[in-house]
Design a protein that fits this description.
431 residues; D-Maltodextrin-Binding Protein, domain 2; 2 domains; eleven-stranded mixed β-sheet; two-stranded antiparallel ribbon; 45% helix; globular
Length: 431
C-alpha cells in the first residue's frame, strides 16, 4: 500500500509538472497584431496571409494577426487612433515617410533599442536609397519592406497604331508631349477615346509632383524634414508642366486623374501611357490584354524618381517579449529569399541587393526583364518627401496640386500657398 501511495504521489507530481510546463508554454506564446496597408491592385492580402501563416508554422511560439486597414493614410490614422486608445498594433507597415510623424507621436521604438549592436549589422543588407527614409538621428526606426519607385508603363499596341516604335518610350519631357499627341485618339465627334498620358493627381499627388520636381532639378525638402521648397521656381515649373499636359498640350484628361482607377484606365485602353508605382507591376502583367512596356520616368534636366512605399515599424507600447518577437517577424519577412519572392509576387522592388542574386529572382528577371527597371532606377532615386507632421505637410501640397489641375489657382499661387502652410506647420521643428 505504501508503494502504491508513493507511486500515485509520483504520478501526481509528474502530471502537475507537465501541467505547469504546458501552462508556461502557453503563457510564453507571443501574440502580435500586425497592421498592413492595401493600396494597389492584385491579391496582396492573400500573399500577406500566406507569408504570415508560413512564419507561424516555423515559429509556433509567435502568433500573428494581420489587420488590413486600407490605404497607407488610413492605416496610419487607425494605428495612431489605436495608440491613443491604448491598444496600438505591435508591428505595422506604414509609409517610410511616416517616420518623423511616428517619432513625434512617441509611437515607435528604434530597432537599436531592441537589438544588440552586432545584430544591427543586418540593416546594411538593404539598398542605401531605401534606408535614407528609414534612419535619422543615428538610429534605425524602420526596415524597408514594401518599397517602390514610380515607373512608366505604355501600351505597345497603341504605340504601333500611332506610328511609334513600340519598344521606344519617351526619354524626356519633350518626347512625352510629342508622343502623347500622337497617342491621343478622338472619335468622329471629337471626343477623346484614348489619352496619350495619365499621371495621377489624387491619392499620391505629392509623389508624382516630386518626381517631376526631381526631373526638373529640385528636391522638395531638406534631409532633416524641417524645411520644404514647394515654391522654388523649378517646382513651380514642374507643376506647370503637369497642368499643361491637359490644358496646353491636350494629351491628358483635364481636372484630376484618380490614382486608384489609373491602372484600370490603362487596361481598358483609355490611356496609352501611365505613371504609377512599380508595386502595380504584377497587377499590370496579369491584367493587361496587350503587350506593354515598362521604363524609367522621362528626364528633363536629369532623370529621377522618389522612392516610395512602406517600412516595418515596431510600436512602443509593447513588452520586451513582444518587441523581440516583432524583430524576429520583421527579419523573417525581409530576408533575401522572401524579399525576392515578394518582389516577384507583387512587383515591389526587392529591398536588398542579395535578393536579386537568388535563383528565383534571377530566373524571374531572365523571363521578365522589366522587373529590374525599378531597381535600376534607384541609381537616380531620391528619398520620398518626408517631414515632421508629414500628413499635414503633404496634404497642403496635395491640395495645391488639386487647385492647380482644376484651375482654381495658378501653379505659382497654389505652391506659394502650400509653402506658406508648410512653414507654419514646421515652425516648431525648425532649429
Amino acid at each position: 500500500m505504501a508503494l502504491f501511495r508513493k507511486t500515485c504521489a509520483l504520478v501526481a507530481a509528474s502530471l502537475l509538472s507537465l501541467t505547469l510546463m504546458a501552462g508556461t508554454a502557453l503563457a510564453e506564446k507571443v501574440n502580435l497584431t500586425f497592421y498592413f496597408p492595401v493600396s494597389v491592385g492584385g491579391p496582396i492580402t492573400k500573399i500577406v496571409e500566406g507569408m504570415t501563416e508560413q512564419f507561424m508554422k516555423e515559429h509556433p511560439d509567435i502568433n500573428i494577426t494581420p489587420v488590413y486597414a486600407g490605404i497607407y493614410r488610413e492605416t496610419l490614422t487607425k494605428a495612431l487612433t489605436a495608440l491613443r486608445g491604448g491598444e496600438p498594433p505591435h508591428v505595422a507597415v506604414l509609409l517610410s515617410t511616416d517616420m518623423y510623424t511616428l517619432i513625434d507621436e512617441d509611437a515607435i521604438v528604434p530597432y537599436d533599442s531592441i537589438m544588440k549592436p552586432e545584430e544591427m549589422a543586418f540593416t546594411k543588407a538593404f539598398f542605401p536609397g531605401f534606408m535614407s527614409n528609414s534612419q535619422t538621428g543615428g538610429k534605425t526606426w524602420g526596415i524597408p519592406f514594401q518599397r517602390s519607385t514610380i515607373v512608366m508603363y505604355w501600351n505597345k499596341e497603341a504605340f504601333k497604331a500611332a506610328g511609334l516604335d513600340p519598344d521606344k518610350a519617351p526619354a524626356n519631357w519633350q518626347e512625352l508631349v510629342a508622343m502623347g499627341k500622337k497617342l491621343t485618339v478622338k472619335d468622329e465627334s471629337g471626343k477623346v477615346t484614348q489619352w496619350g498620358v495619365a499621371i495621377p493627381s489624387t491619392g499620391y499627388a505629392y509623389w508624382m509632383l516630386q518626381a517631376l520636381a526631381i526631373q526638373n532639378g529640385v528636391e522638395l525638402m531638406n534631409a532633416e524634414g524641417t524645411k520644404t521648397y514647394f515654391d522654388d521656381p523649378k517646382a513651380i515649373e514642374a507643376l506647370t508642366f503637369l497642368v499643361d499636359l491637359a490644358g496646353k498640350h491636350g494629351v491628358s484628361p483635364s481636372g484630376t486623374i484618380d490614382w486608384a482607377t489609373t491602372p484600370r484606365d490603362f487596361f481598358e485602353r483609355k490611356t496609352a501611357i501611365m505613371w504609377t508605382t512599380t508595386g502595380n507591376l504584377t497587377n499590370v502583367r496579369k491584367n493587361a490584354q496587350f503587350p506593354f512596356g515598362v521604363g524609367m520616368l522621362p528626364a528633363n534636366t536629369r532623370p529621377g524618381s522618389p522612392t516610395g512605399g512602406g517600412n516595418f515599424y515596431i510600436f512602443k507600447k509593447s513588452t520586451p517579449a513582444e518587441r523581440q518577437a516583432a524583430v524576429t517577424f520583421v527579419k523573417w519577412m525581409t530576408s533575401a529569399e522572401r524579399a525576392a519572392q515578394w518582389g516577384i509576387d507583387t512587383g515591389y522592388v526587392a529591398v536588398r541587393p542579395d535578393a536579386w542574386e537568388t535563383k528565383a529572382m534571377k530566373d524571374y528577371v531572365a523571363s521578365f526583364p522589366y522587373a529590374a527597371i525599378a531597381r535600376d532606377q534607384l541609381a537616380h532615386g531620391v528619398a520620398e518627401l518626408s517631414t515632421h507632421d508629414n500628413q499635414r505637410v503633404t496634404k497642403a501640397l496635395d491640395d495645391a496640386i488639386q487647385a492647380a489641375v482644376t484651375g482654381s489657382k495658378t501653379p505659382a499661387e497654389a505652391l506659394k500657398a502650400a509653402q506658406k502652410e508648410a512653414e507654419r506647420i514646421l515652425r516648431r521643428y525648425a532649429k
